[in-house]
Design brief:
- The structure is a homodimer of 411-residue chains.
- The first copy, chain A, has a seven-stranded mixed beta sheet, sandwiched between helices. The first copy, chain A, has a three-stranded antiparallel beta sheet with strand order 11-14-13. The first copy, chain A, has a two-stranded parallel ribbon with strand order 1-12.
- Chain A has two domains: 134 residues, Aspartate Aminotransferase, domain 1; 246 residues, Type I PLP-dependent aspartate aminotransferase-like (Major domain) (Aspartate Aminotransferase, domain 2, 3-Layer(aba) Sandwich).
- Chain A is an alpha/beta fold.
- The first copy, chain A, is globular, with a radius of gyration of 22 Å.
- In chain A, helix 2 packs parallel to helix 9, helix 3 packs across helix 8 and helix 9 crosses helix 12.
- The interface between A and B is large, with 108 and 109 residues.
Amino acid sequence: MRSSAFDFASLFPASLPAPAVKWTGAARYNFVGGHNDPEMVPVEALRAAANAVLAREGQALSNYTVNTGPQGYRPLREFVAEKLKRDAGISCTAEDIVLVSGSLQALDLINAVFCERGDTVIYEQESYQGSINRMARMGVNVVGIPLDDGGMRMDALAAALADLKARGVRPKFIYTIPTVQNPTGTILSEARRHELLRLSEEYGVPIFEDDCYADLIWSGKRPPALYAMSKIGGVVHIGSFSKSVAPALRVGYIVAPWEILSRALALKTDAGSGALEQMVLAEFCKPHFQAHVPKLCGALRAKLVTLMESLSEQFGTSAEFEDPPGGIFLWVKLPDQVDSMRLYQKALAAGIAINPGPEWSVNAPYSKSRIRICFASPSHEQIREGIALLAEVCRSEFGVPLRSANVQKRA
Amino acid sequence: MRSSAFDFASLFPASLPAPAVKWTGAARYNFVGGHNDPEMVPVEALRAAANAVLAREGQALSNYTVNTGPQGYRPLREFVAEKLKRDAGISCTAEDIVLVSGSLQALDLINAVFCERGDTVIYEQESYQGSINRMARMGVNVVGIPLDDGGMRMDALAAALADLKARGVRPKFIYTIPTVQNPTGTILSEARRHELLRLSEEYGVPIFEDDCYADLIWSGKRPPALYAMSKIGGVVHIGSFSKSVAPALRVGYIVAPWEILSRALALKTDAGSGALEQMVLAEFCKPHFQAHVPKLCGALRAKLVTLMESLSEQFGTSAEFEDPPGGIFLWVKLPDQVDSMRLYQKALAAGIAINPGPEWSVNAPYSKSRIRICFASPSHEQIREGIALLAEVCRSEFGVPLRSANVQKRA
């Protein structure tokens, strides 16, 4: 890491974001990021897959898109189509899919297909930080719809759409994470999905469905995707293998009508996403995906139980949360006097990384005392130790939880 | 591939590029794109590398950046630092490198660090289409500097910089492909490199050095990188493994002072580039890269010879070109009456894909009768057949080459 005598800074656009801080390693107790359980990476099966596919098709790596075109490695697209039919009720073919470099590239492409500075979009009030930040960077206004235990509230959505229409604003899309919502963990019911689609049609506002956590449901059962339920094809659907196989592979997908895919492909000027990872995934998924996911869910559910027990032990009634039906994170309400942005800083200094609520919400007062805790990556022991230490930090900074809370032990 | 009853089109920004055309397979004679020689993909060594690195570190795929941070897989950064020291005279460490999803992502990031709509940059007059197109999309003005057999002409650069300064314009950077220039194949001499650096300093305009073809030099000898020669650190250097190992792996790198890397990292919101590909490359490159590259160059040089012989046989004196010192493409001048944009269309209809000059130049009249022919991917036989067919198309459309040209056989 070296610096330069050249005056670069005077050339930077004023709109450039602040420089990144030098990375110095992850926190000891790392409860942030979509990292997964290292023990659950199917290493041997991925190794066998890499062996087989390289032996059979390795020469195709000489071609930017391994001779299957800009939509991505065809056998993986075929697997995605089968998987979506089986799990999400989506009827599509490999032609309706574009493989991308993680669902983050899907966000970038679809955002760019619809939005420009000054536009308006509708989000769940609490949402993925990376999605919210992208809109801020693009200068797009986000209207947040409150959630309850059943996901996005349709009465609030109806009111927001009516209000925007009255003001002459047609939002570019309704962005939703309906199936294991990030960060609240809720699943939008089928009835609400029907209502969401009805409102989408009535107001001519398409739905942008981000289903990147939908594989991680303890029961293995999920409602059909909005994409599957739309009678007029008014939904763009994205998903990922980051949560179900391994995040570092960076493979996601877009399912959409050709009107959208052709626009997204025109913006995808990366000469193709990494093909080896697509090839290895396809080779792995066909025989192993369906058996792998329930095993992974079992391991994640066990970690969630450890997290919830640790919170109850250490925070008592000071930490409020719902037992989520899936996912890798828990959305926790702390007492009102807790400023989670300050807690975040103090916890980090103590070696604990958490997500402060305001970074995962467009409603600062509502999220002020809330935090997101990711539980997939740390070990059971790290979860117990980390939450105990977090309680110490919280107590010394905000006077909560009271020490007496500790007496509440697991049932 | 399906279409929708939903009216998406009325929501698209006016600035959206035209939709992509559905891919229907590569041309039979494919002389476009940076594809490489399928026979030269080191499949067995990559397989062994994948095996070894997955067995040893596969669990790290549970972490977005395999626990080595947002700059990318550390062992590959360490290899790049060694390689650049050995080959390009660059003295740097893993801390000075960011791994990216192909050098195309490097272009996007560095362009965004410096440029906004209305800015001006300096390019070689003939340059990589993907770079030129990116500037057009961003609304950035490109000033083109003519090349000769020795690369960018320093007299023309000096004049352009003086002219821009007189008009109050400080260009954001001088973008150059100095080492096997695309499409002309030239190598900028060390003397011109000194002059380029002097002008860069004098006018306070940094250099953006794209060295993605620099490994493919027949002699194995290259001048030091501009990055290595700059005394004040006024150069951003990018490179790639696409040309030297396999394009579909999508792994490139940026070498720059921290002032630049920290800005690029702030814009790199993709949660890391594909880690498996970085891991496999690192494992492969350490023992094999130095022996692999000369073998690859030998195979490419042989294809170039076939291409030049075929052109001489089929076009005679109607095809003018220099024998390039490396690379995967030949820049060919056809007779003035040839409109290469029309030739491109007619050739494509006949099953031959070529790059028309105007897409690789900011000077339309100069490039009108020029074409770029990539020779790495087609077989020797395809090169011979494809060039013979191209001569037929050219003759029927433009009356050149005359049929008598065919009598000129190889020496």
